[in-house]
Design brief:
Number of helices: 10
Radius of gyration: 19 Å
Bound molecules: S-adenosylmethionine
Order of helices and strands: EHEHEHEHHEHEHEEEEEEHHH
CATH topology: TIM Barrel
Number of domains: 1
Number of strands: 12
CATH architecture: Alpha-Beta Barrel
Shape: globular
Distance between the termini: 23 Å
CATH superfamily: Aldolase class I
């Protein structure tokens, strides 16, 4: 791993933060933890469609390991945890893990990213366990198109889960919609945006990122998306929801929800990136689009005190390895999103 020379920005507004910082002054307060590489969908944009992905959480980190990792992160200033995958709800009794993480004093918020297929039955239990909110992937509201993109005829379950999540108070419910999956992207954008008219959801159109050898896609730009929305709806700037991150938000036709767009490659938000990621197999990654990572597995085999010290050290190393940005668009490539944890 080659590291840039150390340049800490002493005038950064984060100077009052006493926790973990990277070399560029960014405070690390957010950790994404992948609970499994298994998934019950085969989305065309989420890496190679591999066989046998349905039940691969046997080699994933145990609940105890996840809790130890989060404790170490929390002791260094991490306050927000997002559970992801693969599909995190495939993991048995996720709510018990949520409860344990919520009980860690420094953790202020536990959230989850899911495809929603299994959410209807678990939403109330997760909310009772202390889960704050969910992001749900929804690439199309059209059953045929949804099946084509995800490999499964499940859009009705997901639409039901969205309403159940809102009722369970897992709000704001954010819908992640990767765009540029079809030539008819306008239809996709308009259909999903309509969800924000009468539902309290926050739709986020997400730029599709290329994998491994893939080239870039002839995808709509951020300006294209806005033009499409403005051509069909009355679009008004709106306050972003809690935890709104990098996107700008709008209401459509005065609806109760909002829409926004996230363009990690064309409009990167690296300057304010506050996150690290743990893969399901225990690799602590510094950046989604960089291979810089620290292996946590050996630390996890050590006795408790030593384990904590080694995990803290690993977090410091990963923060140190965090690149200033994820490089040029031409270089930006992600590996398998289901392995890294989206
Ligand atoms: N199974 C869960 C789900 O479907 O939300 C969590 C894991 S999934 C990898 C998390 C998110 O990764 C999805 O919402 C999707 O937006 C995003 N994602 C996956 N592949 C992507 C790609 N190639 N470009 C942009 N976003 C991607």
């Amino acid at each position: 791993m080659s590291l840039d020379p150390v340049r800490v920005q002493t005038d950064h507004p984060s100077h009052r933060f006493s926790g973990l910082r990277d070399r560029f002054g960014r405070c690390i307060t957010y950790l994404r933890v992948s609970l499994t590489t298994a998934c019950n969908l085969r989305c065309i944009y989420c890496g190679p469609r591999r066989a046998g992905r349905g039940s691969a959480h046997c080699d994933a980190l145990s609940d105890d390991a996840v809790v130890d990792i989060v404790r170490a992160a929390a002791s260094l200033g991490v306050k927000a945890i997002r559970l992801t995958g693969g599909e995190p709800l495939l993991r048995p009794r996720v709510w018990e893990l949520v409860e344990r993480i919520v009980s860690i004093r420094e953790i202020e918020e536990v959230t989850l990213t899911t495809n929603g297929v299994l959410l209807t039955d678990q939403a109330d239990t997760l909310a009772a366990a202390g889960l704050r909110r969910v992001n749900i992937s929804l690439d199309s509201t059209d059953p045929v198109e949804y099946s084509r993109v995800t490999g499964r005829d499940a859009v009705s379950s997901v639409l039901q889960a969205i309403d159940v999540a809102v009722s369970a108070g897992l709000q704001p419910v954010k819908l992640n919609t990767v765009i540029g999956l079809t030539s008819d992207w306008k239809q996709q954008v308009l259909q999903v945006a309509r969800m924000a008219i009468d539902r309290q959801v926050c739709v986020r159109f997400i730029e599709r990122m290329p994998f491994g050898h893939e080239g870039r896609f002839p995808a709509p730009t951020l300006a294209d998306v806005m033009q499409c929305l403005e051509g069909a709806f009355d679009v008004t700037p709106a306050q972003g929801p809690r935890g709104s991150g990098p996107a700008r938000y709008y209401t459509v036709n005065g609806g109760v929800g909002t829409v926004g767009a996230i363009y990690p490659l064309s409009a990167p938000f690296c300057a304010t990136c506050n996150r690290l990621r743990v893969t399901a197999q225990g690799q602590l990654r510094a950046c989604l689009l960089s291979d810089a990572s620290v292996d946590l597995r050996e630390a996890l085999c050590r006795p408790a005190l030593e384990r904590h010290a080694l995990l803290c050290r690993a977090f410091k190393l990963a923060a140190f390895a965090k690149p200033r940005s994820h490089g040029s668009i031409a270089e930006a490539r992600i590996r398998d999103m289901a392995d890294i944890g989206g």
